[in-house]
């Protein structure tokens, strides 16, 4: 599957307003995809922050989060002083291209994870015992200190999501969650892991636990959906093309 298409979106589409729920991730996807498609050419200067915020309909803090993440991943770089600004990197970050099979199936893997983990969020809110949530709180604290060490962060992240599945007391859901996490690990190994993205995701972990502890299944499902769709936006923005 090639990310190139004969019917490319216009720049108005690239900078159209984003949704508020996943504003950070969607902004990252929008800019990352525009870079991959060549709509934002190598060396191109992005519009000023104020203009971007207005056109995208987001706050300056959200925009700066996304720009920082894209700079950390090697897609953008900032230049200070006269004539400075934020520029598209002249060369894409050096990442081994994923297989055609992986590119063809990544959205399906995300769909499977979504169907499994939304159910986990709802059932954990109804069934989880306090002593089952305490270790997950510890993982969230640990992940706050691991945003510069992605392999360790990812290990803790997997343990967190499997721990939520275990809190449903459903062995089949634990097995399904484990399989889904394995598929996601294969996918995210092909993208950069800026600290800004990991910090944002871990803040969602904390909010999710709060809802589960409060037995608020609707809110838990809503936050889990936001969390997983955020991952999809990041993959769409940063997953390399197949050439």
TrEMBL record:
Ranges where the HTH gntR-type domain occurs: 21-91
Give one Pfam family: GntR
- Any one GO molecular-function label of the UniProt entry: DNA binding
Which Gene3D superfamilies does this UniProt record tie to the protein? GntR ligand-binding domain-like (1.20.120.530), Winged helix-like DNA-binding domain superfamily/Winged helix DNA-binding domain (1.10.10.10)
Q: Could you tell me the keywords of this UniProt record? A: DNA-binding, Transcription, Transcription regulation
Mind telling me what this protein is named? FadR family transcriptional regulator
Organism, as annotated: Baekduia soli
